[in-house]
Design a protein that fits this description.
heterodimer, A: 648 residues, alpha+beta, 11 helices, 31% strand, B: 562 residues, five-stranded mixed sheet, 15 helices, 19% strand
Amino acid sequence: MAPHGCSYSALLLIICSVSVFIVTDSQDTTLSGGHHAAAVEDNPQAATEAAEKTSEQPAVEERRWEATEVEEATLHEAAADKQDTPAPETEAPSPVPQPKDDFQEELVIRPLHSGDIYASFQFRTLWETDFMSGNKVSHYRLFPKSLGQVISKFSVRELHISFTQGYWRTMQWGQPFQPAPPGAELWVWFQDSVTDVDGTWKELTNVLSGIFCASLNFIDSTNTVQPSASFKPLGIGNVTDHRFLRYATLPREIVCTENLTPWKKLLPCGSKAGLTVLLKSEKLFHSSFHSQAVHIRPVCQDWQCKTTSWELRQTLNVVFDLHTSGQGKREWSLFKMFSRTLTEACPLASSSKIYIDITDDPQGELFELSPATPLLSQAMVLGDRRTFSVYDLTQPVTFGTVRSLNPLIRWKSSEGDMLRPLLHAERYVAGYGLQTGEIHTLMYNNHPYRSFPVLLLDTVPWYLRLYIHTLTVTSKGKDNKPSYIHYQPSKDRLRPHLLEMLVQLPPNSVTEVTVQFERALLKWTEYTPDPNHGFYVGSSVISSLVPSIVAMDTNITMDRPLFSSFFPCKEESSFFVRVYTEPLLVNLPTPDFSMPYNVICLTCTVVAVGYGSLYNLLTRSFQIEEPSPGLAKRLANIIRRMRGVPPL
Amino acid sequence: MATTEVERRRGQLASLSIAAVVIIVGVPLWWRTTETYRAWLPVSQINELANLQLQLSADVEVVFARGTVTPEQQKKVPLTKTQDEEHTVDEDTALRYRYETKYRTANIMEEDALNQTSAADADLSLHTLSESLCGSLVVYVIPESSSLLPEDVDVYIGQRRTALLRNGAQMRVGRTIEQLLAHLEPRIRQVLKVMSFSHTDITAALSGRVRLSPGNKESIADSMRAFKSSPGYEITFSLLNPDPKSHRLHWDIEGAVQTYIQPLLTKLAPVANFSIDSQTLYYAMLGVNPRFDSSRNAYTLNSDSLAHVINPVEARLGSNAASSNPVLNFLLYAPDAQHSPLYIQDRQKQKVPSNAFHSPRWGGIMVYNVNSFYGPEAVFPVDIDIDMAKVMGVFLAQLRLLLGVQSTTTPPGFLVAPCSSTGLADWELDRLMWSRSVENVATAATTITSLAQLLDQIGNIVINDNIAEQVSSAVASLQLAVAELEAGNLGFALQYSKEAILASERAFFDPSLLHLLYFPDDQKFAIYIPLFLPMCVPILLSLLKIISDARQRRKERQAKKD
């Protein structure tokens, strides 16, 4: 089986098949016939082993080499014989072809009010190709081959996958650029040509689990749902039939180095040049929050959307807690965060920039940034106008005289307060005992005067049996009737509960959604190896169009920073936000796992006892026994025996 | 007295009947409900397959052109002749080659075709006259005086399934037809060895089943180089650019694949399915540092160090996400500006002219130096167009080797036609199909027999119905493939052998075979001891009592008789 495992003598060989294609055109003088033969090293792996047998080898090789020359001579003749054969593509004037793919990289750094640092990497590969019409795409340049093959084999229209370690604290950190739930999340829109969506989904998750070294193969029908409204395609395409959508989360998934390495391998520059040199796992995983994601979708090239291209967006978000490790000083630099500095941009990238959010401190009173950069940029992000200092890595002047870039922020004072995020949510389990419980989901609308609708998506595993009649939605003490409810009950061991609701959140309010559930008893093989740890219930997803304070940009073709262009913005007055709640950890009644053996033993004993009495009844022979004489008579008899008189 | 006797008899009968119920109903019921499910397998047919008797039949047509036989001889020409050749490879494998030779004289159109000026033209027009079947051959015997062949050439092997054989000079008209045929026979056999299966090819194909004697190293090397037979192959071309800062490489891989690779693969379509991919990998380094050779003013890679080149690159190549077929990798490495030019050295310290090497059953690497495309004053990055004709020439040659299309060493006096634009002659394809069919049959037979052995040895493996179905279909396809090989229908034989190998692999690697593998019998008995012990003890005791009673009574009766 092992291709290199064989240990036979290494030989040198020249193959020469008389192959017509190599024949030179009479006009083309650069081609020479000598190229047609490939010198061949047989099994380099075995070379060392073979070295032991050198005594006989040279002879063989020599003979081989002689054979080479002879064959080459015949080849020349053959080539000469066939001069008339048209040689393909010899006169290529070859103007440099315009590459149809484009790569951009970007790093956004935002100091958070809690004293943490938020760093968000975005890598975008755009490729003008067509995965959708039947023809096979097989030649890759910047786009990674493994993902391209996945798209074309499984007819994927959109693929979003994220791996997250830690929970994003919205109240302390504000909204992230790319929200993601703890654990792994995967949602895929298939093309409408797919007939067996479930089978394709199963295969796709298995292949993706191989590509990303993750346990995505644990995705099956018991944790897959088809949300009807919460997850709309983010790219172009008007397919909104949710039969072609699959959504699954694995809240238990642990993200670590083995997921980062394959993720980095998808980038054209690997981890060798550009912003990717900062991605060293020993620092990245020493953080409060780590989230990496891959998003693939078709996007428009221009305003009219005449040509489409495929966008691969790889994002990595990380929050560093520098305050505690910084010995009380509030300052950070690239080197402190990543233990690397930047020296060059990725040569394949058409744009390579670092954005540092200085909105909170336009006058430089709060902190100072060095080296200072003259470039400033404004962008609408998450309903807010933010100001950024920009370092353009494609310009050599950025790196200065020391040929390395290491931006540094030093705080002067720790004042300043944060705008409260307009929407946030939390969730917990209430109740006691192991029979029933109640899930509470709280949604906060912090807007002072506007109410807005939100879509709540809840997926609950089948082993928590939801009592949907106990579902209540209350805001400000009053019943708040959802305008749309989509509920799909679970089937044991087949599919989870799916609950989707459209709820209007009144201004400056808390809306509470509660639903009661009963815990089911699992079969003994269905428990995890650590059943007393509890069972995870994935995060609720809250998607909403939140009213914006400033006018949003709706022009999709304008050159915008990548971090502000992920969610398409359809209208100026609102922006799209997705909020994930905490995953829940629920204890289920856990049996004693030696129970099956005990049950068998106990049953066998009961059966044996019953059988024994039945057997006795059937086989014993019964005899009428003389009634025993009374006590007086027995005493009298004893006395009589002592006296030697016959008994009564 | 009578009542107690009746009562005793009743008790005895009751315990006997309970024992009977337990033994007749209880034990089989328990056995049936706790046993592992094992579907029926065609064991006897599998055992037959363990002893592989293959017969390969090739149809050969020998056509005598005008001037090779006299009219009297023509009348005596036998219609058909069958020759068998038996080989015993090892105790379980035997081969028999059967050549069914038909003799006839050329018809008018064939005579016309043979009167053409060159052998290649004759070959082409003979091909248009009749479509020969896959695996069959036509040998035209042409007179010694014919001008079709050059002076020193006796045999011309065409691009299709025809060969031209020049009648020997000593075979003047007047000899008997028997002598003529006896003279022709060894030469026809030589032609067959080249154009159809040869014993070395077939034994090489059986290498997965039979341990070859270590005498013939070369043939082992040949047989180990090619990929194992598989229903499909993935071909991946990778352009490695370790220095994108200085070199901007462009390759027209799409066009090159269409022009050079696709015709060959179209031709090979009956053997396997192929899919082609290409990718560009940046910052991909080789695993060894090339040494600077000041005499040549170039960097060199020694053949010893080639073994270490592939490993770091392979980590980035990525496996094929979309299928599990074997991958053939072809890498084009353009050395970075600091290490250019780079040459591969053989063991004699000579430059390898093609600057390429290959690794058996893995793929090939070619080093493509780009430093000559720009001068010392060039501004980096420079745009470089890769000459695909040069690259594809090497890759195609390597591809032929890795797929097992071997260039045979021809005996002296043979002239092999240069192959057509497809890069593969029909008879070369036939040769490949012969050895692939035999290899598939041998592999599938080995898989099925070892599966049967395994299932036989480990009693508590569950055999599901679908596994039994796969095994049966594999066995059926195998039998069909063997039968088709015997009948000489090469195309069908290959088709059935592919089905056999697919079905056998699916059965062998079915995950359901692993269930309950670790649930041994002694545990099963231990669990049911609390049931068995209290049930069996009273039954056994009462049975013992009945037996001792009966013995007692017989003794009493005997005593009474005495």
